[in-house]
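Notebook, student rotation project (T.W.).
Task set for the rotation: take a protein with a known small-molecule partner, predict the structure of the complex, and write up what can be learned from the model alone. Partner molecule chosen: zinc ion. Sequence and SMILES entered below by T.W., checked by me.
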Amino acid sequence: MDELATESTRFDFSSGYLCLDYCNTADGNLKREWKENLHTYDDIVLWGREAGIISENEAEQLTRSASEYPADAIQTLEKARALRQTMYDIFSAISAGEQPESKDLAAFNAFLNEAGSRGTISEGLQWEWVSDSLEKPLWPITWSAAELLLSEKRGLVRECGSETCSWMFLDTSRNHSRRWCDMKGCGNRAKARRHYARVKSAE
Ligand SMILES: [Zn+2]
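Predicted structure of the complex:
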């Protein structure tokens, strides 16, 4: 996504990978305390639109179905949050050089099997999602996580170095030394703290 589009979106898409952008739909630390940014089903639709995984028509259709079936919409929202937590737990472990827990992989595989059953390879040899369920935005996210887990890029997954932030990103810096989710936010705050500590100790 280009710079301009990033600025005009409500959600952040700077992680470098779709599924990690989705992990970053909560601010704060997903292990402790966080601020939820997915409040309603419509937020999932908006995220999907901004991420470019659903079309404008699909978005309208999903929003309409959600208002017709509010209980299903709430259930899907809960599922969307559970998917995020599962993906976060897996990628957080990987970024720390640990093995993901088998319960998290089992949970993820359940999402993956479901997503896989909703798609098909078209005659033009493209992957197409064939169902119009409210869960549609979750499938490409799940797919993206499976892709990342199976790719060499998984070794580049990092979790922000700030204690109060658990945003994930792909460290594509030349010497793989990036520590913060983005230098505008967490990195600058950390730098300011170090500067303050230096000034204090020099007094
Ligand atoms: Zn951060």
